[in-house]
Write a structure and sequence with these properties.
By secondary structure, the protein is α/β, with parallel strands linked by helices. Strands 1, 2, 3, 4, 5 and 6 form a six-stranded mixed β-sheet that branches. Helix content is 40%, strand content 16%. Strand 3 and strand 4 form a beta hairpin. The chain contains six helices and six strands.
């Protein structure tokens, strides 16, 4: 079993990465392999609404880090998406990344457990955390919880480590993720598969 952790910060080894590293360490101690995927610090375009990914292309027409992630996501069993808090929201690059990854590659993510983690200096964490969770709950993904909202505080990676409650929250999150993945594996071994999705009904309010 493997969990893919996404570092949505423009800083490869900053506070968000520290949160991902701490989470990954606990997962590894429980027998779950991990990989941290950095979205990078190059510009990431938002979705341009061309629909090419749904019309036979099979991937986003903008061939960048999003397609690299979706390819890896197909082989992963669970996900942790981490982002710094910018103006009480996830980073702009992370928002564009999530929009395109979930729109073009949602099938590689569906029915796999996911969790969001946010890193902030002081405020805005709960709003950003809520934003991340909305991607999971629109895509048939079990949301992994912890003992508190998944957030760490600090202006440097070293300060993040001083947030004892935040670090414990991440540890609990990792333990819950490992438990759920093992439950899913046991269920699959017993012949229990995920539900078959119904054909989506779209109700338009203006016709």
């Amino acid at each position: 079993m493997k969990v893919l952790l996404v570092n949505g910060s423009p800083h490869e080894h900053g506070c968000t990465d520290m949160a991902m590293q701490q989470t990954a360490a606990v997962l590894e101690s429980l027998g779950i392999s991990t990989e941290i995927f950095w979205v990078g610090n190059k510009p990431i375009s938002g979705c341009i609404g061309c629909g090419a990914c749904k019309k036979g292309l099979g991937k986003c027409c903008i061939d960048d880090t999003v397609n690299q992630f979706v390819q890896k996501a197909a082989e992963a069993d669970g996900f942790v998406f981490g982002s710094p808090v910018h103006y009480a929201a996830i980073s702009g690059a992370m928002c564009a990344f999530m929009d395109r990854a979930f729109y073009s590659g949602g099938k590689s993510l569906a029915f796999k457990p996911a969790a969001g983690v946010v890193s902030c200096r002081r405020g805005g964490a709960s709003a950003a955390f809520d934003q991340l969770n909305k991607y999971f709950t629109i895509n048939n993904m079990p949301v992994v919880s912890s003992q508190y909202w998944n957030q760490v505080h600090g202006s440097t990676p070293e300060q993040v480590l001083q947030d004892e409650e935040g670090i414990q929250t991440l540890s609990t999150l990792a333990k819950n993720m490992a438990w759920l993945l093992k439950c899913i594996e046991a269920g699959r071994a017993a012949g229990i598969e995920h539900p078959t999705p119904e054909k989506v009904i779209r109700t338009n309010f203006i016709r």
